[in-house]
Known about the structure:
With 492 residues, this protein is of the alpha+beta class. It folds into 3 domains: 8-80 and 207-399, DD-peptidase/beta-lactamase superfamily (Beta-lactamase, 3-Layer(aba) Sandwich); 88-192, no CATH class; 413-490, no CATH class. Helix content is 32%, strand content 27%. The chain contains 14 helices and 26 strands. It has helices at residues 8-17, 25-38, 83-96, 106-109, 126-131, 139-148, 153-162, 179-192, 196-205, 218-222, 261-272, 285-291, 355-370, 375-399, and strands at residues 44-50, 53-60, 62-64, 69-70, 75-78, 136-137, 164-165, 226-227, 258-259, 276-277, 280-281, 294-300, 303-308, 312-316, 319-328, 331-338, 343-349, 417-421, 425-431, 437-441, 444-447, 449-453, 456-462, 465-473, 479-483, 486-490. The strands form 6 sheets. It has a 9-stranded antiparallel β-sheet. Helix 3 (83-96) packs across helix 9. It is globular, with a radius of gyration of 24 Å.
Amino acid sequence: xxxxxxxxxxxxxxxxxxxxxxxxxxxxxxxxxxxxxxxxxxxxxxxxxxxxxxxxxxxxxxxxxxxxxxxxxxxxxxxxxxxxxxxxxxxxxxxxxxxxxxxxxxxxxxxxxxxxxxxxxxxxxxxxxxxxxxxxxxxxxxxxxxxxxxxxxxxxxxxxxxxxxxxxxxxxxxxxxxxxxxxxxxxxxxxxxxxxxxxxxxxxxxxxxxxxxxxxxxxxxxxxxxxxxxxxxxxxxxxxxxxxxxxxxxxxxxxxxxxxxxxxxxxxxxxxxxxxxxxxxxxxxxxxxxxxxxxxxxxxxxxxxxxxxxxxxxxxxxxxxxxxxxxxxxxxxxxxxxxxxxxxxxxxxxxxxxxxxxxxxxxxxxxxxxxxxxxxxxxxxxxxxxxxxxxxxxxxxxxxxxxxxxxxxxxxxxxxxxxxxxxxxxxxxxxxxxxxxxxxxxxxxxxxxxxxxxxxxxxxxxxxxxxxxxxxxxxxxxxxxxxxxxxxxxxx
Length: 492
């Protein structure tokens, strides 16, 4: 097992003054150069498996930039939508044990919920929910589970009744979304009286010895894990951690895990070895095989690929790979496997803009190295991706606004107070002693910013994403706050 820890100046000296005999040294060099190009020394952890062993580990940058805490093998990252592959595997394990039938329909799952007829709840199955072909959409369901954390069991039932047909992707059509996983986990939690977090821990984490992995953010605190802080170059102050961090309430089955590169390597080893880890059949071989199936084809960026049980399926170097990314404020993650060659890769980053570009560059670079491609081809991959990132970064920084949005001051008293919505929860607007205003909506928050129209202010829940908030007063003096098409009623 090869471990690389960050000492930037030392590594660069060694790279410049010696011949790189190990081909994975090119991975080190690429990542270090990448961090210079994007002008942010955020953290990255990488692990590569081949056969039944870890053949590379690399740790770069900082998990905490302000305190210059280096990323290492114990650094825990939030992995967002990579969780989908784990939850789909959990469902297949439940099916293997006879507890779940993936052909079960929504009607059978929720006999007491009155779905809209257009949803065709008698036809939508668990398989549809997991492969993103259910045709169901619900922005409120995504919002409360992934962002605000303001929900309970009864509210989710109500949101299911209120869910609607995706106009761009009806039943049977692929459209990537969190909704299917949110619906299925709600049903399984209630059916088995065990929450999805416990299911993953029991069925996957513990059997694989993933001892620094959890679907609960509170475990990072209670176990004193080194949780990476999140950063964004889109922020006016990129070296300041983003405020939006996950809580237990906003961890969900479509995006709710924290883990390390070493723990992820265990998961990948089991994936490429038919469920065997360190000589033990930890996950049934037939379950692993089924989890690698391709279920629905679709086009992405002009290229045909497919989706299965929580994995995207496509080709690279004429070989099939299964992969999934994760993204959230201050996080960008990636994992993939090449089953026929028994190779796997995980890339975990605590910054949210170029983490994906870094991962896809490493995907091509790592698989080229692991497949023993000629050095000329490997060098060409590096040159092409470095040129792409350099161009992208140059364009980004040229266009990035240096203007910090102006905070609103001394507003009408009608803007202050508690505004509530039947399904989206409570928004609280308060005034600080300095005259500025804060809008808080569960885990989301933003200063109120100067707007562009009467009674209109702006919020920035995510870095560089400005949205309007409208305050209104009806003829009966009732006050309202409007966000998107949703009206929140003043109640105190």
